[in-house]
Amino acid sequence: MLNVGQPFPNFSLPNQDKQMTRLQDFAGKWLVVFVYPKDDTPGCTIEGRGFSAAYEDFKRVNACVVGVSADDPDSHKSFCNKFSFKMPLLADTKEELLNMAQVGQSEFKGTLYWNRVTYLIDPNGIVRKIYRDVVPQGHEKAVLNDLQIFRNNF
Question: Which of 49, 68, 93, 143 has the smallest number of Cβ neighbours within 10 A?
Answer without folding.
Answer: 93
